[in-house]
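Hello K.,

You asked for the raw outputs rather than the summary table, so here they are, unedited. I folded two proteins back to back in the same session to keep the settings identical. This is the first:
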Amino acid sequence: MKQKYVKIVVYVIILTMVLTSFSFIAFMPAMLGSASATVYGESTEDEAIDEELALLEKYIQFIYHNYTDELDYQQLIDGAFRGVVEALGDPYSEYYKNKSESSQFIDSVDGSFEGIGVTIQLIDGKCTVIQPLAGGPAEQAGIKSGDIITTVDGKTTEGLVLSNISDMLRGPQGTKVTVTVDRDGKILTFSVERDKVEQNCVSYEMIGEEIGYIEMTGFDSDANLEFKKARIALTNQGAESFILDLRDNPGGYVDMALDIADQILEEGYISHFESKGKLLKSYSATKTEFVLQPIVLLVNENTASASEILAAALHDNHAAVLVGTKTYGKGVAQQIAQLDGEKSVKLSIYYFLTPNKDRIQGVGITPDYVIPKGTENAAAEASYNGFAPMTENEKPAFGEIGLNVYGAQQRLALLGYDVKVSGSMDAETVAAVKAFQNQNGLYAYGVLDYTTMKALETAAYSYAHGIDSEDLQLQKAVELLTE
């Protein structure tokens, strides 16, 4: 078989989740020092491979000429390209048949797109919401972390790759999409109006007089500068120690994570990259800039990818104390290779390791202090799971009865309102609905309209699952920095 020389444009990404619609992904151009690279195929004398490839060509032609319906050759060829990637059994590798598909992926990395604003990941073959973007259309509609997206505009997501699901969720600003999710066995449907989503991945504030709090929701193309700006601003405000919050951070540009680690570390390895059992590259602190203040780093089960690079770098070098729950364990990086003018492939190319050369993939990072975020109420959660759905196309007012009333009364009672669960919209229920509406910034007129029922559902779910309880992880971080 003749040696093949294929020149491809390389984009190295550290991907933990695909940002859909506004999509979620992590991606880094030119991390290896060049915006492009030449990749050479291996030379082989194995004639059997040539025979198999010739047979594949005949196979495609046979199907094209003999199948019951008219076919497009390109359809079959794309299927063959896609099949090679699917044969890897790797959820992070993916074939793009045209520029449109790959461009959507690349655009999502840049942090500005039109869609609903959720991070999704295929977990056990199911499209799972990792995180809705704060303030984005999905969050405003009521979609939550952990929801499994089952259908989009009535079309199932089963068997689809992430890019296909992303296509379904993305769309022009102002258009609507119907998203059905499975939430702990309960089927919920949301009508979401797409919008232009801009992601600012760094926010910061002072906690008390001496602790600076920095939250990072991703690693976009200027995350290192955003982090530096936040650190300097907080230092000028009197911060003598920092809390760096990487909870629910799905990852981002690899070089951003490396640069931020370099800003913090005085010395030591930051990360190593491994392929086929061999180390390809090691990154160390450059000693050009480092932070001496104490740092507590918050992580959880959705801290992934580039976030885990940063967490491991600080942890292994004893530059930060980690608090929270075990991280996701996404320790493999991908590159996008342009195969020709249209086709491209996103392929896993190396593992990234901790400074101590431990793998993160499938393992994650265990914090120094393993603490749940909140105190969940098991009894309340059990009650909530048995509540009647509020799915009737009705807006009950005083004197009316129905399933919506019954379900609303169950949720109001869970939240502490004085109501009897009867299914009848009596005076006590109307008063409780008015009080709930008033406390949640809604028009307080005692009618169970759709907005009120949606807000009531969100409040009851949050209460039952401990979402609105005190942040025990943050409390522990503050405690460690004030000891």
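The second followed immediately with the same parameters:
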Amino acid sequence: MSTFETLLELVKSVFDGELDVTNITPESRLIEDIGMQSIGMLYMAVAIEEKFGIKFNNDDFAKIKTVKDIVARIEGEV
């Protein structure tokens, strides 16, 4: 399973089916396209840190705008 696919499964789990992941693409913008709120982004960050063993810092959040940005951070490209 790719990082993107794993991330989508994590989104489904964190949001307990409240978000339709079938329309999420790597280019989907977190706020504008998916509709994530600040608290949702926080829950996602915690889940991603636990799942992938990475740590986010404040600078990361300024750079992350799309799903692709999250994947790049997970894969260590950012």
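The CA atoms of residues 1 and 17 lie 20 Å apart.

Happy to rerun anything if the numbers look odd on your end.

Regards,
P.
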